[in-house]
């Protein structure tokens, strides 16, 4: 039997990670662990800090939640959303943490051209992360390290959400690493 799997959504802000995460969670009947929503629930909007230390803490809790879901029989697949994984070492650290808990990982990186991502962020409302906007995309893009493979890369500017989900589901169900 294969190990329980955490599907990790990676990519800069405005590339469609949350949209795809929601579609995948629904299609796979999988819990969706969203870093930004969990952080806000834990700390409240006044105490959220958009810094690596708080991000790392929340991601560790999400890994624990995914491990609990697998160990308790709740779900063999979980979706993890909310981090870009564009800083050196972040995805490798997550992969090690998942592996240490007996969880497999499948990463899907969402990309979009800068104009599309900025426009999405400018138009977006209701996101729990108050720092989301075109300037966040610019700041992170300027310092982004490549997201390491293996992974599936999908261009959300070129594909509609339904097509993104269909391609991701096909890849996940095939179980083949690119």
What would your notes on this structure say?
48% of the residues lie in helices and 15% in strands. The chain has 178 residues and is an alpha/beta fold. Strands 2-3-1-4-5 form a 5-stranded parallel sheet, sandwiched between helices. The chain has helices at 17-28, 35-43, 52-71, 90-100, 114-123, 134-143, 161-174; strands at residues 5-10, 32-34, 77-81, 104-111, 152-155. It has a single domain (5-172), classed as P-loop containing nucleotide triphosphate hydrolases (Rossmann fold, 3-Layer(aba) Sandwich).
Topology, please?
Blueprint (H helix, E strand, L loop, with lengths): L4 E6 L6 H12 L3 E3 H9 L8 H20 L5 E5 L8 H11 L3 E8 L2 H10 L10 H10 L8 E4 L5 H14 L4
Parallel strand pairs: 1-3, 1-4, 2-3, 4-5
Helix pairs in contact: 1-7, 5-6
Concise overview:
The protein is α/β, with parallel strands linked by helices and 178 residues long.
Broad CATH class: Alpha Beta
Q: What does the largest sheet look like?
A: 5 strands, parallel
Please tally the helical runs, counting DSSP H or I stretches of 4 or more residues: 7
* Main structural class: alpha/beta
What would CATH call the architecture? Answer: 3-Layer(aba) Sandwich
Radius of gyration (Å): 15 Å
- The helix-strand sequence is EHEHHEHEHHEH
Please give the alpha-carbon distance between the first and last residues: 21 Å
Give a count of the beta strands, DSSP E runs of length 2 or more.
5
